[in-house]
Amino acid sequence: MTYSLKALKIVAVCIALFLCLPVLSIFGELLSVFFQNLWFENPSQLTSIKDNLHHFFTYLFIRFIKDTFLVVFGVLFCSLILGVSCAYLVAQFEFCGSRLLEKLLVLPLAIPAYILAFIYVGIMDYQSIFYEIFGFRVDFFNIYGAIFVLSISLFPYVYMFAKTAFKSEAVQLLEVAKTFGYSEFQIFFKVAIKSAKPAILSGLMLVFMETLSDYGASAYYGVDTFSAGIFKLWYDLGDPYSAAVLSGFLMVFVFIVMYIEYLYKVKQKYSFNQNLKVFIQKRTLSKVKSFFAFFYCFCIALLGFILPFLWLLYWGLQDAKIFESEFYSTLFKTLMLAAISAVIITIVAYFLSFVARISKHKFFSVVLLKTSSLGYAIPGAAIGVSVMIVFTLLGDMLDTALLGHSLLVLLFAYMIRFVATALYSLEGGYSKIHTQSDEVSLFIKPSFKTLFFSIHTPLLKHFLWLSFIIVFIDTIKELPLSRMLTPFGFETLGVKAFWYASDERIYDAALPSLCIVLLSLLAVVWIQSLSKEKEC
């Protein structure tokens, strides 16, 4: 059995290295091209690279940094305000419609930011209902439009984490604060916010990574963020080397931020209330306060989900393409691609989690899972560039063209990007299985095969299904990788919707977008119902 464990570890390490290979390929490409042109005679190529890099750092790099910083700062600030305020209201107070709003405020996650971007152009621009009623348009094609769309789309991450933290605050905190004569605002800022800080920071970290990963909304509104800049350099300017440089900067920046967050969490110490009986009970608001609380939360839910969903529903269902075979062909291709990706990624994640579980060395387990999860922290555009570098080199070695001709390239990119979400889903399942069950199984029948298929698989069946659903929906919503790596003639619903919107055919983009949102909505509702069952 020792040899079997060693073999499983070797296979798992190979998979982990395979998944992080594209991450390293960008830096390898930069160094190889640099030293190749420095040491060998190829003056024309070296001159071209120098000219491109000079143009990039002189005219583009500062603009990319400025726009990225403004968008990230604006989205983090707005998401913090919206998420924390709504979470505190629905977690601490009972008011008219609070239970319904508690669920509605999660649903903006079902609408990808790039879809929300052109929906608001359709709602607020010329020839829209807003323009006909008020006689003026709201210009979204600027950095403020990008901040608004990304904030209203991503604030539920902060909302969900903060709501859980506010609900789990011990009642003794509130009693002590009242003893010191704190007002409601003082309790919120001096007690509630401080105790919920770790959860809020976790939500903000997710918002930060999703904002850096965004390509669709920024590109559509003409904002030069890092992700949009990578596409502009690679496709519009035909400068892959500068695109690789920008991707390298983006990766280093993300890793530095993640490391700072890790150091902060290590230094801070917090206690979490585990006694459900002493959770803070919701307080009932007066009629006037109840109205304002309802109005505030409802406006956010209206802007984030209700209004965009109704717009999609109205224009999507009256689209004549709903009767055309081409639409159903694109839908079928998208669903099949997502299903195949979800099955493969879930199986890979399950195998990695199993090896980490049975390994006797905790350090090995942590390194294995963290290495495999690197892709989630890296924006999709940067992963796309790194995968293109790897498969271009591989194609040169095999003397065949892989990019633009094989779905395997796209499936590999999806695996790098989404294997972390599958690992996190299975991690929750494994935490509920006591290690003694493994020891008993191996004592009765010393076989890892039996442990994997006969013990863990039935116990994790629910979490495997959860992993499949999450990866399935993430794959359908993914835009940068799908646009960069799909074979010629193959289009997903997300790519189709983005091309329609980019071509000023906003209403044609409604039907494919509606399909994406409906599928995402079903997943969000299902996961919410699952969480409610766990609480019960």
SSE layout and pairings?
Layout: H1 2-39, H2 43-92, E1 93-94, H3 98-104, H4 113-124, H5 129-134, H6 143-167, H7 171-179, H8 184-195, H9 197-213, H10 216-221, H11 226-236, H12 240-267, E2 283-284, H13 287-317, H14 325-358, H15 362-372, H16 380-398, H17 407-430, H18 435-444, H19 448-459, H20 461-477, H21 480-485, H22 493-502, H23 510-535
Parallel strand pairs: 1-2
Helix pairs in contact: 1-12, 1-14, 1-15, 1-16, 2-3, 2-6, 2-9, 4-6, 6-9, 11-12, 11-16, 12-16, 13-23, 14-15, 14-17, 14-20, 16-17, 17-20, 18-19, 20-23, 22-23
How is this structure best described in words?
This protein is an all-alpha fold. 79% of the residues lie in helices and 1% in strands. It has helices at residues 2-39, 43-92, 98-104, 113-124, 129-134, 143-167, 171-179, 184-195, 197-213, 216-221, 226-236, 240-267, 287-317, 325-358, 362-372, 380-398, 407-430, 435-444, 448-459, 461-477, 480-485, 493-502, 510-535, and strands spanning 93-94, 283-284. It has a two-stranded parallel ribbon. The model has no long low-confidence stretch (mean pLDDT 83).
